[in-house]
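Researcher: Here's my situation. A collaborator sent me these components and asked whether they could plausibly form a single complex. I don't have experimental data yet, so a predicted model of the whole assembly would be a useful starting point for our discussion.
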Amino acid sequence: MARKVRVVMAKLGLDIHWRGVYLVSQFLKDAGMEVVYLGNQFPEQIVEAALEEDADIVGLSSLSGNHMTLGPKVVRLLKEKGLDNVKVYMGGVMAPDDADTLEKEHGIQKVFLPDTPMEKIVNHMYASVGIPRPQRQA
Amino acid sequence: MSVKKDPLFNEDSINRIETDRSTWFDTALSETDRAAEGSFFTHSGIPVKLLFTPADIKHMNHARDLGFPGQPPFVRGVYPNMYRGRLFTVRQLAGLGAPEDCNLRIKYLLDHGATGVNILFDLPTIRGYNSDDPEAEGNVGACGAAVDSIWDIDAYFKDIDLGKVSTSIVTHLPSTSIVIPGMYFAVAEQRGTPWNRVAGTCQNDFIMETCVGSAPEILPPAASFRLQCDVVEWICKNVPRWNPISYNGYNLREAGTDAVQEVAIAISNAIATAEELIRRGMHIDDFAPRMSFFWDLHNDFFEEIAKCRASRKVWHQIMKERFGAKNKKSLLMRFHVQTAGVTLPATEPYNNIARSALQGLAAVLGGCQSLHIDSYDEAYSAPTEEAALISLRTQQIIQTETGIVNTVDPLAGSYYVEYLTDQMAQRILAAIQKIEDMGGLVKAVESGWLHREISAYNYKHQRSIETGETKVVGVNYQPAEKDTCCSINVFKYPETYTRQKTKLERLRGERDSKKVKERLAVIRDKCHSDENLYPYTIAAVKHLATLGEIEDVFREEFGLWAFPLY
């Protein structure tokens, strides 16, 4: 049996909108991943948690405009710690151009904008870490 | 007005209608229609029949359940002439970048006929940090304006007469409501505008601090609730035209509840506040007239209208029966409405103009006192000027072109709307009782109950979208063929951090830091007393203490609370 995908999820910085990120965390768990939801955290603590939890994926939520600053910072700090293989995902409310820039220039694996079905997020994550999705969901 | 047995319909008529309805149901409808009966519900779960008749409201008593507008139980509205006398206030949000940028947006909206101003803040300000605090990185001036000191409030309202404009200051949290409106009052005083001419509202809701928003640092529910009550008490005594609290059903609903819970939690908070202020020696009629509410108008058109009507009825009942309020203004519930941001997808964003217009229409049919209509670009950013103008125009179209403001409560007497209003009232009262049984709202929050409720609601709702049971046009129903997201203009926040940082450096250079320290020490000390903190925070901001400095004192003295969900 394939091992479980390990995900660290966080709300970025001072953002207060917890509905989406908590929901995504629940759906990832349902799909058989091991999810640690940090609540609100700043980049340094998020990277520390990724290291401690031996994460495959870091998921960041931003609905308050800090995505261009704090998202790339997480990627940068992960690299500094030698965690280049950790995939960083983002989700939230932002301009589509910003999402493009984050993916193309700042090393964000994928940005999920509003209306994204949970299935799409789950499948994308499994594919990106190369672990098959378990048949029977937890 | 006597409330004797005075049914709207006589018994013989009702019996006949019930018989005729059965016959009609059995003979006029198809097998499919009959089989489907019982499977339709409103968003909050109230059964919806194919057809409503007088039999569904046969117990309705005109005086007891409806009355006249401006009279108990206020179901039909809080003023006798409603919108003929005064149209609902067109209140669009204005908050972006630095206070200087907001000042331009406020003037733009006022020039285009807005009659009130809603000001909102960036996350560091909402959470009580200065723009140059490390925690604020990336959030300064985004989604709202940065406010660090009294200078910023002065700049926000440059060339605007604080004695003439009605301002809603969207300080979500009690801990900032005890500081930022104080800056506003102090600015008014400096400009020679007496406090009895200053009108507006601040939000000031401990549910916002402890449940709706998450953040790394939250004050404990009891401390947040104490500050909430300090704000209400002090403002009622000192700034008589100011609404010191707007019980925020809106953001709770956006975070994840149904319409019943939205109203029940907000009223439960009002009950808790009333009990605390009475304990402090105030009379219900000293403060209840200044309590206001804030509702979220969602997609379920008639349920939302019924919610507005029912919430007035429930409020009247509680104020009268439980608190013995005598002042008529204590008995009537005034509320602001914002349309539901959470219902506005990013896909095919122009559809949101239609969604918001329908929600706005429901708000006016529900008798709101003021209205904000969300802009179509909600799922992208704060609204562009173009999008904000369409929202403003939508309000004006409702006011001047539809004719619905010419008569009061035009849906009264609709069998369905009256049935729903009664159902909503009953369910709201039951939900309030449940919270009472948990020891009141502060205790219920401390136990983590509300967080679990929100989380469970969201999970269920998302599942129903994933399975297609809940349909969202263009998203999971008749989905857009190609990606239509990228064709709209998106608002770009102006650079704010550098400007705020420069201003803060200048402020720290110019102020008397010894005086600031003294004022902060007084606040620190008073945190542990029974005294109202407002006079001490207002004294501190006058001496140019910053928001972040005062909030740090609260965080240190009250301690922090862990979000009880994870």
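Model: Some features of this prediction you could bring to your collaborator: Residues 90-466 of chain B form a domain with the TIM Barrel fold (CATH 3.20.20.240). The interface with chain A takes residues 122-124, 126-127, 129, 135-139, 142-143, 212-216, 254-256, 342, 345-347, 379-381, 454-455, 458-459, 462, 466, 472, 475-476, 485-486, 490, 492-493, 563, 565-566 of chain B (CB under 8 Å).
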